[in-house]
Every structure is written in structure tokens, then in C-alpha cells.
Design brief:
Layout (H helix, E strand, L loop, with lengths): L24 E4 L2 E7 L6 E12 L7 E8 L6 H14 L5 E5 L5 H4 L2 H8 L3 E4 H11 L8 H9 L5 H8 L4 H5 L8 E3 L4 E4 L2 E8 L6 E6 L4 E5 L21 H9 L10 E4 L5 E2 L1 H25 L8 H4 L6 H20 L4 E4 L5 E4 L4
Parallel strand pairs: 4-5, 5-6, 6-7, 11-12
Antiparallel strand pairs: 1-2, 2-3, 3-4, 8-9, 9-10, 10-11, 12-13, 14-15
Organism: Limnohabitans lacus
InterPro entries: B_lactamase-like_C (IPR048933), Metallo-B-lactamas (IPR001279), RibonucZ/Hydroxyglut_hydro (IPR036866), Sec-metab_biosynth-thioest (IPR050662), WH-like_DNA-bd_sf (IPR036388)
Protein name: MBL fold metallo-hydrolase
Length: 362
């Protein structure tokens, strides 16, 4: 499908409306927008409830009416209470039939185990995301521990107190995702999920997480974009210790190509920010943003060889605390790696054990 002529600005069809915690806004018939709090600078996540019907588990030939949940929020008392309010006031007495997780990050995955157990509902997600969630919940993750400390140190972050905090963060993921459901149903790229008689196509995305799945219903003109396409902030795209030579930014930009030909009228339901129309415009804005950062980095590495830590002031113009620095370091490495792996920068492991990047002439 081709776009109609795109607008020069994003269209927010619900204006400044936001659902209060524990309440909903109907963004399309049978599609409810929920908003749950997060204890971070990014202080919310959008979740989605879709009216659904599936074959009845105990009555052959019969169907069961209910809801499909897309993403869950972190596991904490406030989010559980919000879900109980939703259950009491907005499920219309119908059960949750399945839980879809776009990816394994805590704000999307945290309460999956609770919702699945409460409703005897299966979890649906991609294999890479499920396996990464299982590993992270057991303490093997990119969020902390000795391998992550060594990775950051190799890219120039050598402040002892900061790295001690990172080493201790092995419990970061399990603190928000205390369990992962013991089984799941696999989502795969270009497969369809049938939701109340309509097909939602899985669009795989890389660079932000291992195998993120967005959902697009052409018949309804709706894209549940997860974290791959956000209206007002750029998605975190990082290289991590488990894949130290990764080219995450290239993967992310390639993934956006799968969404850029959606009709301009498509209603995009993002995980953060407000629902909007104008996917092609937003993708163009994101490409321009990263092009600008890459150009600035290339210029900076022409003047002198830089580590990822050295490059942080080029990419981020604000002070960063340790939590924010972990994301910023991953982003810095991702941008440097894209330039390195495309041949625009050279990478050298110097005598102090730190990787630095430079142009051929610097």
C-alpha cells in the first residue's frame, strides 16, 4: 500500500486526553487504551485491551468472548491495583483470553505471569524475547553484573562508584519481572494473529530488543507499534555486553522500513506518548535525528579518537545519572558501531584496554 500525501505534522486524534490509571479511553471500537505508571523519568506505559473471541477451551465448536491484552506493566502493587480496577470496571464481566507481550522489557513483561495465572490465559510473544526474558529473570541479562561492567569499562566508563552500582544491578530485571510464564505461544514475523475475526500481522523489529513484535491490522487501519515507533521520543537503541560487536542502530533503522509504507491514515498506538497518525512522517523524523547524531559523531572523531564514554556529550546535552548513563552508553556504542561497521570509522583497542574510534585521517 502507498501513503497518501503525508502531513507536515503528526496528528493526535485524541488531543491531550490521557486515561487515568485504572481507567480507559476507547480509541477504536473494542480497542481500549490503558496507561500505567512507571518509577522512571519515562513515567508511564500504554497498554491495550482488544475485544476478542477464541475457541472455547472446554466446549467443542463453541467460542468464548473476552479480551486480548497487549503488554502488561511492571509487577508492583500499584500496577496490580490498577489492573484490578480495570477488571472491576471495564472488562464487562468477560475474561482475559490471552496476553501478548511485544517484547521482554520490564514495563511490557512484568505482570505477564500474574495476568496469565489469574486468567489461565496463554502468553504470546516471539521466541527470542521469551528466552531473553527467562535469562534476564534468572539474573543473566544486560542490565547489570560483571560482564556488563567489563563492557562499559572497555568503552571508557571507568568510574569505580558507578561501576559498583552497575555490578549490583543483577536484581534489576527480577525486581520488576519476578516470574516468567512457564510456556508461551510463538509469534513470528509476518504471521497473523486472529483477533475477533480480523487479522493482525506481526511486524518484527530489531535494535531496541531481541525480536520485538508490532501488530498491524490493515482492515482496521491500526498499528500497535510497541516501542519501535514512538511519537515524541526516540526509542533506545543500544549495543550490550551479550552482543558486543552488534550493529543495533542499523538493525533498528532497517526495521523501520517495514512500517514506512503504511497509509498515512493508520492510527499508531505507541507504548509511550499519545496515539497518532503519520507513521511515515515520524519515521522520517527519526531517520533525520539519527543522521544528525551520526554526522556529529563523525565530525568529533575526526578531531580525535573517542571512546563511547568520551562521545556522550556529543549525543546527550543534559546531565545523566547512573541509570540514564546505562542507556546512554548503549546508544553511544550503537552509533559508533554503525559508523565503524560501515567503514566510516576505525576502531582500535588501545593500551589502556579501551576501544576508541577515529576517522582514517585523524
Amino acid at each position: 500500500m502507498s501513503n497518501s500525501a503525508p502531513s507536515s505534522t503528526l496528528d493526535y486524534p485524541f488531543g491531550d486526553q490521557l486515561p487515568e490509571t485504572g481507567s480507559v479511553i476507547e480509541v477504536a471500537p473494542g480497542v481500549l487504551w490503558l496507561r500505567m505508571g512507571l518509577p522512571f523519568a519515562l513515567d508511564h506505559i500504554n497498554l491495550w485491551l482488544l475485544r476478542d473471541r477464541l475457541p472455547h477451551p472446554s466446549q467443542a465448536g463453541a467460542e468464548q468472548e473476552g479480551w486480548t491484552v497487549v503488554d502488561c506493566g511492571i509487577d508492583n502493587p500499584a500496577t496490580r491495583e490498577a489492573w484490578l480496577n480495570i477488571e472491576a470496571t471495564h472488562l464487562q464481566g468477560l475474561p482475559i483470553l490471552r496476553v501478548i507481550a511485544t517484547h521482554m522489557h520490564p514495563d511490557h513483561m512484568g505482570l505477564a505471569h500474574w495476568l496469565c495465572e489469574r486468567w489461565q490465559a496463554p502468553l504470546w510473544m516471539s521466541t527470542s524475547e521469551y528466552q531473553s526474558a527467562v535469562m534476564a529473570q534468572s539474573g543473566v541479562s544486560n542490565f547489570g553484573g560483571e560482564p556488563t561492567v567489563k563492557f562499559y569499562a572497555a568503552h571508557g566508563w571507568n568510574k569505580t562508584d558507578d561501576l559498583a552500582q552497575i555490578k549490583a544491578r543483577v536484581g534489576y530485571y527480577p525486581s520488576m519481572v519476578p516470574q516468567v510464564p512457564a510456556a508461551y505461544v510463538r509469534l513470528m514475523a509476518d504471521h497473523t494473529v486472529r483477533i475477533r475475526g480480523q487479522d493482525w500481522r506481526c511486524i518484527s523489529g530489531f535494535g531496541h530488543s531481541p525480536e520485538h513484535m508490532a501488530l498491524h491490522c490493515a482492515e482496521r487501519g491500526i498499528l500497535i507499534s510497541g516501542d519501535m515507533l514512538l511519537p515524541s521520543i526516540s526509542t533506545n537503541v543500544s549495543v550490550y555486553a551479550q552482543e558486543p560487536q552488534g550493529n543495533a542502530l542499523q538493525l533498528f533503522l532497517d526495521s523501520l522500513t517495514k512500517m514506512q509504507d503504511l497509509p498515512d491514515s493508520t492510527l499508531v498506538l505507541p507504548s509511550h506518548g499519545r496515539p497518532f497518525r503519520g507513521a511515515a512522517l515520524r519515521i522520517a523524523q527519526l531517520r533525520a535525528h539519527h543522521d544528525e547524531r551520526l554526522s556529529e559523531l563523525l565530525q568529533a572523531c575526526t578531531a580525535q579518537a573517542l571512546s563511547a564514554h568520551d562521545a556522550l556529550p556529543v549525543l546527550f546535552k543534559r546531565p545523566l545519572n547512573v541509570h540514564q548513563m546505562t542507556f546512554a552508553m548503549g546508544e553511544s556504542v550503537a552509533h559508533l558501531h554503525m559508523l565503524w561497521l560501515s567503514g566510516q570509522l576505525q576502531r582500535e583497542l588501545q593500551a589502556d584496554g579501551v576501544y576508541r574510534f577515529k576517522t582514517a585521517q585523524s
